[in-house]
Write a structure and sequence with these properties.
Layout (H helix, E strand, L loop, with lengths): L46 H4 L7 E2 L3 E5 L9 E6 L10 H19 L4 E7 L9 E8 L10 H7 L5 H16 L4 E2 L14 H21 L4 H4 L49 H5 L53 H8 L5 H4 L8
Antiparallel strand pairs: 1-2, 1-6, 2-3, 3-5, 4-5
Length: 358
């Protein structure tokens, strides 16, 4: 007497099986005499060959790594593809050896992410003739997701946040770039705009989460189904780098205008009274308007060496000048010296700098 086969296989009782309740096995279809061509076979175009590098998170000389077009339930799902249109059994020795290196490298990169316990590596190849290897990350502590049903759980679990998803992509791309190639995935941008209130922030977050869940539920695609279709490159929004057009007001050192925002301290004097050379040449017995030795006032020092009358000006000690003698440093100072004899040098101490408080 023959044993009656069970209505459903034993794996439906495994803890990792994602379904429960009454299940029925589908009727197996009759085999077809000729299998239909895959993508990249016959007259069918190869989507991987026509995809630009911008559709990938990392590109190298002979390999490229791409992600799904949106977050899924697992922390990370990536696909490793060869640039050359070859299937797994058609790889030459060089690419076959590199496939092993790239598989180990990508597995380590994904396993380095926070919250990842294992990385499942799969190759089906029923949808495309172009070699593509699947890498699925199992969340840490989720023992129910262990085993062969991880690809089914990926479309059952709620999608992770897009910010976390983009951050994981950027980390994996940076890891691979340490060994060469070019990373193309960027981390999420920080949202600097603060809401008007905490209530508005909470309501906006709830609305965004509800919209994301609805969109994910409406467009859910399992990993196995996605193996037949290569996601088109997602629309990328060019990053806007705001620039500050405002320029700080600069002090005009030529005119020393305090009203324009410049300070007199450290400004280069241009008048005869503010000239360090002329101020340094003023000694005891200088022309009228200067302070006699020993009297400390604004614009002079107790030793008799006069300053320029501007706060922060350099004090210049010049040689002693006989009383009433006019000091000339060059042809350009002829007019200034004549004015000094008439008492024009007295103007400097009276023009108090903003820092002197006079």
């Amino acid at each position: 007497m023959h044993d009656t086969p069970p209505s459903v296989p034993d794996f439906t009782q495994w803890p990792s099986f994602p379904f429960e309740g009454d299940l029925h096995v589908k009727q197996l279809d009759d085999p077809v005499p000729v299998e239909p061509p895959r993508k990249g076979e016959g007259l069918r175009e190869c989507t991987a060959c026509n995809a630009p590098d911008d559709a990938y998170i990392w590109v190298g000389e002979r390999w490229r790594v791409r992600a799904m077009d949106r977050p899924t339930g697992l922390p990370m799902v990536l696909i490793l593809e060869s640039r050359t249109h070859l299937d797994l059994g058609d790889l030459p020795n060089l690419l076959a050896a590199e496939l092993g290196v790239m598989t180990v490298r990508l597995e380590r990169a994904i396993r380095s992410l926070d919250g990842v316990a294992r990385v499942h590596v799969n190759r089906w190849g029923d949808g495309s003739a172009h070699l593509h290897m699947w890498f699925l990350a199992r969340p840490y502590g989720r023992l129910q997701l262990r085993g062969t049903f991880l690809s089914l759980w990926d479309s059952i679990l709620p999608p992770i946040s897009e910010a976390q998803w983009r951050e994981n992509l950027a980390l994996v791309a940076a890891w691979l770039a340490e060994f060469g190639g070019r990373p193309l995935a960027e981390p999420p941008r920080i949202q600097w705009q603060a809401p008007s209130s905490l209530l508005a922030q909470s309501e906006a977050a709830d609305a965004a989460a509800a919209a994301a869940d609805a969109a994910a539920a409406a467009a859910a695609v399992s990993v196995i189904e996605a193996a037949e279709e290569i996601p088109e490159p997602a629309d990328s929004t060019p990053s806007v780098d705001p620039t500050d057009d405002d320029t700080a007001p600069s002090a005009d050192a030529a005119n020393g205008d305090a009203d324009a925002g410049s300070t007199a301290a450290g400004a280069a004097p241009t008048s005869e009274a503010a000239s360090p050379a002329r101020a340094g040449n003023t000694a005891s017995g200088a022309p009228a308007g200067t302070t006699p030795p020993g009297n400390s006032t604004s614009g002079t020092t107790p030793s008799g060496t006069a300053t320029s009358g501007v706060a922060g000006a350099v004090v210049a000690n010049g040689p002693a000048v006989p009383p009433g003698a006019a000091v000339r440093n060059g042809p350009a100072d002829d007019d200034a010296a004549d004015k000094g004899a008439a008492g024009a040098l007295d103007e400097a101490p009276r023009k108090a700098a903003p820092n002197t408080g006079a």
